[in-house]
Prior knowledge:
Layout: H1 3-17, E1 25-29, H2 39-43, E2 50-60, H3 63-68, E3 83-91, E4 94-104, E5 110-118, H4 121-142, E6 144-148, E7 153-154, H5 169-180, H6 184-189, E8 195-201, H7 208-218, E9 223-228, H8 235-249, E10 252-257, H9 268-275, E11 284-290, H10 298-301, E12 309-312, H11 318-329, H12 335-344, H13 350-366, H14 373-393
Amino acid sequence: xxxxxxxxxxxxxxxxxxxxxxxxxxxxxxxxxxxxxxxxxxxxxxxxxxxxxxxxxxxxxxxxxxxxxxxxxxxxxxxxxxxxxxxxxxxxxxxxxxxxxxxxxxxxxxxxxxxxxxxxxxxxxxxxxxxxxxxxxxxxxxxxxxxxxxxxxxxxxxxxxxxxxxxxxxxxxxxxxxxxxxxxxxxxxxxxxxxxxxxxxxxxxxxxxxxxxxxxxxxxxxxxxxxxxxxxxxxxxxxxxxxxxxxxxxxxxxxxxxxxxxxxxxxxxxxxxxxxxxxxxxxxxxxxxxxxxxxxxxxxxxxxxxxxxxxxxxxxxxxxxxxxxxxxxxxxxxxxxxxxxxxxxxxxxxxxxxxxxxxxxxxxxxxxxxxxxxxxxxxxxxxxxxxxxxxxxxxxxxxxxxxxxxxxxxxx
Length: 412
C-alpha cells in the first residue's frame, strides 16, 4: 500500500469518527503548526486553557527525554521524534481531537501526519497561537536547533572570538545579524519588509559553518531552524516546512545548507517564492551557505530582498592561519614555530589548519608524550602531500566537509 493511500484511509476513518453533521470540522495539519512534534504532549498539561486532557499514545518523547538523549550514541533512537496516537482535550471549553499516525515507506523512511477535529475555528487559532509561543520559549530554554528532516541538535556554545576571518569581516557579520533583531520598529517606519537574507559563499572549510554556528549560539532571543537537502521526492515539502516553521516562530534564524544543491531537488521557483514571502517571513533572518556560487540561479543573487548581503569566505591568509593556531594552541608552542607552520600551510582551508593540530596531538598520543613543534611540522608535511595527491585525482578533495552537522542519510 502506498503512503498516500494509507493516509487517505486513515483520514477517512478519522472523518467517520467525527461526522460533519455533528458539528465537527476535520483537516490535516501542516507540520509548521507544531502538532507534529513532542511539543503538544508537553504543552497541554501546563496550558491554562486546556482541560480534560486525555492522551492515548504509543510514543511520547518529551523535551526532557530528548535533552537527556542528545549524545551521539543515542541519536539513532531519535530518528522518529514525537508522539503517535490520540490526544483529546477541551480548549477554552471547546472539544479538540488530534491524531498523529505514521507509516514506514519501502525505503524505511518514516512519514507522519496529524489530523485534527474541532468545532470552533477561532478556538483552534487560539490554540495554535499559544502553542507557537510555547515552542519558541522551549527552544530558547533548551538551546536547541530544530532540524528539518533529522533530529534536533543543541545550539553550540561559541562566541564571536571563535571566528578567524579577514579583518573586519566578523564584526560586519555580527553587526548585520544583531542589529536586525533590534530594528523592527525602524523597518516599519521606513516601509521596509522586516526580513533579512545572508549568503555565505566560498570553498569548504573556510568558516561559513562556524559563522552560522556563532550567530545561532549568540542570538538566543531568536528560534533557530536548520534545513539541509536530503534528496528524494519529499524535498519540496521539507523546505516549505522549514520556512513555515521559521515564520511561525519568528523572531527566528533559518539556516539553509548547501544552497547550490537545491536546484537538483527543489524547483527554483518554489525557493524564490518562499524567500519573497512578506508577512510569512516577518522577523526571519535567512542564512544560506554555498560552496559553488557559480551554480546558483542569478535570480537568487541579483535581487537584494532575497539575499541582501553576500560574504565571500576565501581560503585563509597567512595571518588568519597564524591567529587561529595561536588561539588553539594557547602558548604550547613558540611564536617562531607557529609563524613557520602558518607559512607552510599556504592553500589550506581553516578546517585543514585545524587538522594540523589534530594530527600533531594524535602523534603525541601514539607515543605517549606531550606534543612537540616537530609534530606540527610533520603534520603539515603529511597534509600537504595528502591534499596535493587528492587534488590530482579530484580537484575538490582536500577540504573537509563544510556541513553544519544536520545531514542525515539520503533517501534511496
